[in-house]
């Protein structure tokens, strides 16, 4: 049996395994958005606001998918707003200018100068996010956000995949990728079992699946949780650390490639 029944998995509960979880005290407001004009639209946008990140994920030339993580009360207000006001709130969230910290600006422009002299990207160029024209009818909804980790992904004859085994904050857009990785590894191990003529429910294959996925998923989940915490606080040293950290990650291609390769495996 494969438990692919989501974060509240009945299969996982029936397995009686330990499940570590905590709430982020945020809801994710989702919707399908129509953009003001057709563009190539191949870039995913994310902006970290004091209430949480807002992200636009490209669908096609004129449509993007919204994931707006915010407080419970704000999410409820956003769901109740008439369409036009919701679109105004959305554009405001994407474009509003917040007061900047001069210390952080001074440090990032100094780091940018050093990167430029070293022939690396200084992170100074700014691209502008798209403007939203309308929201697709009945596409607005909100979901609670939480962290979840099942300490075991397997039991005799049973394997968990996807959110049934692990749950992450959507700020890194990794939830589905982690599940796809589970499915790929599980099918690879089960195919190996079939080719060698062994019972596919034998614990050897299931344990291989569990350890390979937990080695990948648990560090990813912890990194996403750390990012959530890093962006939740508005303390000058943290703002500085994350701004310079992003600038360096963007400039150092091997680091960027390593993160991208981990995210897609
Ligand atoms: C607000 C929000 C935004 C997100 N944004 C992103 C993003 O941008 N990128 C990304 O990669 N991930 C994102 N995610 C995470 C992503 O949605 C999940 O990781 C993914 O949907 C998990 O897929 P799944 O198939 O494991 O579980 P689910 O999508 O939860 O599917 C489980 C299915 O099992 C069914 N089911 C449950 N119990 C039973 C039962 N007893 N009998 C029959 N069927 C049952 C459910 O109806 C459901 O259809 C987001 C999540 C949220 C909440």
Automatic annotation (TrEMBL):
Required co-factors: FAD
Record domain FAD-binding: where: 142-215
Cellular-component GO terms for this entry: mitochondrion
Residues passing through the membrane, by range: none
Domain of life assignment: Eukaryota
Keyword set, alphabetical order: FAD, Flavoprotein, Monooxygenase, Oxidoreductase
Gene Ontology molecular functions: FAD binding; monooxygenase activity; oxidoreductase activity, acting on paired donors, with incorporation or reduction of molecular oxygen
Family: Belongs to the UbiH/COQ6 family.
Taxonomic placement: Eukaryota, Metazoa, Ecdysozoa, Arthropoda, Hexapoda
Keyword Oxidoreductase: yes
Record has Oxidoreductase as a keyword: yes
PROSITE patterns with a match to the protein in the record: UBIH
Protein name: (apollo) hypothetical protein
Organism: Parnassius apollo
InterPro entries: FAD-bd, Ubi_Hdrlase_CS, UbiH/COQ6, UbiH/COQ6_monooxygenase
GO biological process terms held by the UniProt record: ubiquinone biosynthetic process
